[in-house]
Specification:
heterodimer, A: 63 residues, mainly beta, five-stranded mixed β-sheet, 5 strands, B: 257 residues, alpha/beta, five-stranded parallel β-sheet, three-stranded parallel β-sheet, 16% strand
Chain lengths: 63, 257
């Protein structure tokens, strides 16, 4: 699975679990799966596959 | 002074200095700077989460009443800008978006054409679009038609502190566009912010100058005064420049023959 541009070996799990596993605060991140935004309400029920491409983004300082 | 608030999209701003969150030596300077300057809207960027870094999020340092203006920095095309904008909105902090489409890295010159394209798409999706562009009245008209909520012409290259090098072009845009004009990029000194406001700009956006100053809190306050002074001067309508002198004291009653 590719997460933020890097290939990682992660077990099949929900988006919500992956975020928690990575120690992220779910309330400040946005998730895009295979080019489509996944709404927060669906993180608990969306299962990730080996072939998935995931982007996990958040706000940072910028002008 | 009666209500001189600035309306952009659904929001009304009492303070015409917008600020940015980039380049601060520490994000803890942001809140005191906002208190000192009274700025009510701040830009942020959207990036991949760095899993190795700590959990601190920029939003922790921005008071809740501040309007967030996410930018599409990183986008090199309209398509990339649209993608970033949709992701930014999903964060749930509002519909404002600063379209920034840049692929020229020496001057960080925005791509006006791609910015117009992105504006048209995002305005239709209900975003409050503030496009960052090189000032040009032709582009300004296209942005107006595309549904932009304001126009953000650059004064000089991002982070350069060189002031209003594009002054005449900004004047043209202010004269010819119905959109609120927010001068953004290159403003280095409060006097330059005042200059923009005296010309009739609706607001200014300052990031680098404040964030990289030795004392960002003090400079934030200075910029706030300058923006107010410039705005008041604009509203007061200063008499136009004269070629020749006109005496300030009477030309009669001299103490001589």
């Amino acid at each position: 699975m590719v997460i933020n541009g890097k290939t990682e070996n992660v077990k099949t799990q929900t988006i919500k679990n992956l975020l928690l596993e990575k120690g992220l605060n779910p309330s400040v991140v946005v998730v895009e799966l295979n080019g489509s935004i996944v709404k927060r309400a669906d993180w608990d029920t969306t299962l990730l596959q080996e072939t998935d491409k995931l982007e996990i983004v958040s706000f940072v300082g910028g002008g | 002074m009666q209500n001189d608030n600035l309306k952009i999209g659904p929001k009304e701003f009492t303070n015409r200095l917008f600020t940015g969150t980039g380049k601060f030596a520490s994000p803890e300077l942001i809140e005191p700077m906002l208190t000192a300057s009274g700025s009510e809207m701040m830009t942020v960027a959207l990036r991949r989460v760095d899993f190795a870094a700590g959990q601190e999020n920029i939003l922790n340092y921005i008071p809740k009443h501040i309007t967030l203006l996410p930018n599409t920095s990183g986008a090199r095309t309209a398509e990339e800008a649209v993608r970033i904008a949709r992701l930014a909105r999903e964060a749930g902090c509002g519909d404002f978006i600063k379209i920034e489409v840049i692929h020229e890295m020496k001057y960080l010159m925005p791509d006006n054409e791609e910015t117009v394209k992105a504006t048209a798409i995002l305005a239709k999706e209900g975003f409050v679009v503030l496009p960052y562009v090189l000032p040009d009245i032709v582009t300004a008209k296209k942005l107006e038609d595309a549904g932009a909520a304001a126009i953000m012409p650059l004064g000089s290259p991002i982070g350069s502190n060189r002031g209003l090098k594009t002054r005449e072009l900004i004047e043209q845009v202010i004269e010819n566009s119905k959109l609120p004009v927010v001068v953004d990029a290159g403003i280095g000194y409060p006097s330059q912010a005042a200059e923009a406001m005296e010309m009739g700009a609706a607001a200014v956006l300052v990031n680098t100058a404040i964030a990289t100053a030795d004392d960002p809190v003090l400079l934030g306050r200075a910029f706030s005064y300058a923006v107010q002074a410039g705005r008041m001067a604009f509203l007061a309508r200063v008499r136009e420049e004269q070629k020749y002198a006109s005496a300030s004291s009477p030309l009669t009653g001299f103490l001589r023959d």
